[in-house]
Amino acid sequence: MRVSTGTSRLLRVGVGITLAFIYIPLIVIAIYAFNKGITLKWPPESLSTKWFGEAFHNQDVKDAFVNSLKVGAVATAIALVLGTLASLGVGRHQFFGRETVSFLVVIPIALPGIVTAIALRNTFTEVFGITLGLFTVIVAHATFCIVVVYNNVIARLRRVSASFEEASADLGAHTWQTFRYITVPTLRTALVAGALLAFALSFDEIIVTNFTIGAGEQTLPVWIFTQLTRGQQFPIVNVVAVIVVLLSIIPVYLAHRLTREEGGATAGRAAKGEGEIAEVTAMP
Question: What is the pTM of this model?
Fold first, then answer.
């Protein structure tokens, strides 16, 4: 599609305004991370990297970071299994209420975080009598991470014909052979992208975490939130916030690259897997 020079310039200005609207606050935080003083002034009177050293040697920050990694990794693993199973059930089978099931799976991501947090906290403490801790945070995060994995996998399943699995069955492959050589190669990038996005979502989550975590335990976002009331910690908070942003960019960027994969490449891998199935089933 060809556009006029004026329209092209207008679009560029619009893109620039959009990016500025999104990223100027992040740039401000990054600049404050190098502020030499304790108080926040704009612009900073002088710059220094000393607060980065303070942050890296702060034991509370280290413990919170490790907790965030643990919660994100386990919640992502749970979401990867349950989200994939749900997407395979909805995407590859016809049954009454299929669209309703799909709708119910994605609802948690649309609910207000405070509502989900209160519901989960009451369920853990009042219904099941579970003491709040990292376990409850992991389960809570998995409830909305499932949606991310589900959406990625179901989108891939809708773009890839079920004929590959059917051809594999016609060649004599059993269910697990089909899953290993056809389904997994077809969904590989969607699974990885979904897992990366789920981890990023879990790593940054604050509202649900704050309601479901135990006393004396913190994830990195919770640590940042609790330190905002302490003026002496402002410089370190800014440094940690910058680190969280940088760490969050990595999985999101990788997921973006993976989801750009052409459908033809996916089909090619599936066809390759079908050939492997034929070789396996031909073996005596």
Answer: 0.79
